[in-house]
Specification:
elongated; DNA-binding; mainly alpha; homodimer
Chain lengths: 199, 199
DNA sequence: ATGTAGACCGTACGACCGTGCGTGCTAATT
DNA sequence: AATTAGCACGCACGGTCGTACGGTCTACAT
């Protein structure tokens, strides 16, 4: 009797499934997340996977949450080493581009690849994605404000406008990079952002 | 063996189908283009629709071509009224944002909404989308070069870099606008681009 | 020792998908 | 008038999807 199942086993299975789900969703889409494929990857049965979440929507929401944690670990966390303001803002942007190039998710930025899919389908899933996006841009704005206050950026800089300028460039770069598989695109955007925020 | 056939009927049906397909694809995705729904919308039978294209891939390629024509009519055509260089570049960018807001396609820019879907699935469809994208950015670069030559932009401006900066912002703005349904995003990007290209 | 909760499996159902087959129908060519 | 190409149809196939239910096993409290 070495193999026993407990609640902690369920959590481990859940986490393993979500790990695979977050990666799969960036390739197949959030709606294309199939129980069958997830079961195949994790070595479980379809119903075993299904039972752990109860519905497909719950699975999707949990997947979004998992992707958020990965994003925090891979991008936001490291950027917090830099002091608030321009430096941190720069680290956030470059960190984003790096995690795309590093293929943390096979289909690039999770939220970018999922956004265009859910944007035309109102509901809890779409709202959750929109919320995560807002948190991200909020973090950018926060540091843009600090940068202006600290005189690291021109005083007539509008933090909200700068945030939108940066965030749209980032997701746009993600998409263009994936479509053309050309790392030069990321490099160009990196220097563009460096220029924009001043050396 | 003389052939004369009744093209008109087939051609008309084909065009009606593609019209619906281009709109549908921006909502359901290129892969989510279902024969059943297309048949339902156009009032034809599933097999009638299928027979006109022969395969789903052919339907997808034809849909991309149709979307290209719509984009040319709605965005590129009007922008050609402006003289080459900075003015035309500006008209192209603003025209793009306008066509998104005007909901020429219900799911925003056709190519943006389709790019993230096909980018992870190599093949003719993905290549076709990438080609169209390249034509679009090529048009931007062309006018950026003219603008620099004409002294409408700083002489140290790199046309390729400017193109990437603009094109990523445009598709990024499209996605953000659709996700949050907030027209202010488009306005902000409009002024950002105006600022970037100088008044 | 026993009861119970929850993880997990096997199987099945209904829906929807893309794809073919066989067949009228229309209209241009003969 | 006869022929014929090809548009459009109804129908049915095999496959995959999400979902549901019943059953089995394990861990833990009692």
């Amino acid at each position: 009797m070495t193999n026993r199942r407990t609640r902690s086993d369920g959590e481990r299975s859940r986490d393993a499934i979500l790990d695979a789900a977050a990666e799969l969703a960036t390739v197949e889409g959030l709606d294309g997340l199939s129980l069958a494929r997830l079961a195949e990857v994790t070595g479980m049965s379809k119903s075993g996977v299904f039972g752990l979440f109860g519905s497909k929507e719950e699975l999707q929401l949990a997947t979004i949450d998992k992707a958020r944690h990965v994003f925090i670990t891979e991008v936001i966390g490291p950027a917090l080493e830099a002091p608030p303001g321009r430096d941190r803002l720069l680290r956030l942007c470059v960190g984003y581009l790096d995690h795309v190039e590093r293929r943390v998710f096979p289909g690039g930025c999770f939220f970018a690849s999922v956004a265009s899919e859910v944007s035309s389908r109102p509901g809890p899933v779409r709202d959750r994605v929109a919320d995560e996006q807002k948190q991200w841009t909020g973090l950018l704005t926060e540091n843009a404000e600090r940068a202006v206050e600290a005189g690291q950026l021109p005083t007539d800089t509008d933090p909200e406008q700068l945030t939108l300028e940066l965030s749209t460039m980032l997701t746009g770069a993600d998409i263009a990079y994936l479509l053309h598989e050309d790392p030069a695109i990321l490099d160009t955007i990196r220097t563009t952002i460096h220029d924009r925020l001043g050396r």
